Amino acid sequence: MTKTITFNELRDIKDRLPDGSMHCIADELGVNVETVRNYFGGYNFKEGKSCGLHIEPGPNGGIVVLSDTTILERALKILEDT
Length: 82
What we know:
46% of the residues lie in helices and 15% in strands. The protein is of the alpha+beta class. A three-stranded antiparallel beta sheet has the order 1-3-2. Helix 2 crosses helix 3 and helix 2 (21-29) packs across helix 4 (70-81). The chain starts with a strand and ends with a helix. The relative contact order is 0.26.
């Protein structure tokens, strides 16, 4: 399922996550922590992989189309639980 949000919204979610959340998400999903960081706008593709997001320039940092919402859903669940 795809989801479209602004880049600023995606970064806000990342910034509100408690310390260590990126590692928890990575461990839970069996991916490199850099892959999770790339999902939230990072660009370390030597260590991590692309996560199926497409960014187009525009207001609020641009539009982000997420082709896989698994990491986003896990991040939102962490925020809900804190």
